[in-house]
Every structure is written in C-alpha cells, then in structure tokens.
Amino acid sequence: MGLSVWKAAEIAAKVAETSNAQKYRLGAVSVRRKEILSVGANMMVYPLADNVRGLHAEENAIRRVEDPVGINLVVVRIGWTGNWLLARPCDNCWDLICKTGVRRVFYSIDNHHLGAEWVNRKLPKRILEAG
Ligand SMILES: [Zn+2]
Fold this sequence. Notes:
The chain is an alpha+beta fold. It contains three helices and seven strands; from the N terminus they run H-E-E-H-E-E-H-E-E-E. It is 22% helix and 31% strand. The longest helix has 12 residues, at 5-16. The protein starts with a helix and ends with a strand. The structure holds zinc ion.
C-alpha cells in the first residue's frame, strides 16, 4: 500500500471519533493504491431494537465504495483516551469482506501493533509493529 498503513490507521482512528456508539468506537478506511476511497465509523441505530444491530465501521466504509474489489481496509478501535484497541473484524464483517473482494485487512491490536490479514488467500497473518 503506497499510503503508509500507519497513516491510514491514524485517519481511521480520527473517523472512529465520529461514531455515535456508546461503548465501541471504530473507524475504517478503504484504500486502493495510494488513495483513500472511503471512510466509515460504526453507527448505532436509535431507538435500539433487540433484533437490530448497528452499522459496523467496515460495512460503512465498504458500502461507500462503488467497486470494492481489490481494496485494502484499515480498521481501528479507540478507547476513551484515544488509545487503540483490538479491532479484528467480526464474523459478519468477514463475510462481507470476502464477498465484496477486499484484498487485505489491517486492524489495530494496540497502540503499537496492527494485524494484517490477506483475504481469500492462504498467506500467513502478520503483526506489524510501529517503528
Ligand atoms: Zn463487524
């Protein structure tokens, strides 16, 4: 990815600040080549109903891209002090990620680590460490 993945993650963290969720605040950024194509935060839908789940950041970012095949997705979850927390996508989001042809997913693990996973490829998962 031309745009540094750490830079994209910083932007995702800013996007997470726009979430209206009470507890989990996540931001996602989709990137193709050096360009950011979309951003999205997780959003709760109010009033809450038992069977209604909010919009996850990954879905939000993916749905804003006309053709998501081959995009990279960078997802960051922030705590109340802006610290980064684990943001590996949930099963529903992985389904969407696979179906829509996302190429690779990066997600915050903590302030200094990002997970990096290829989608639909038998390549090893990596942990990237901030330099
Ligand atoms: Zn999800």
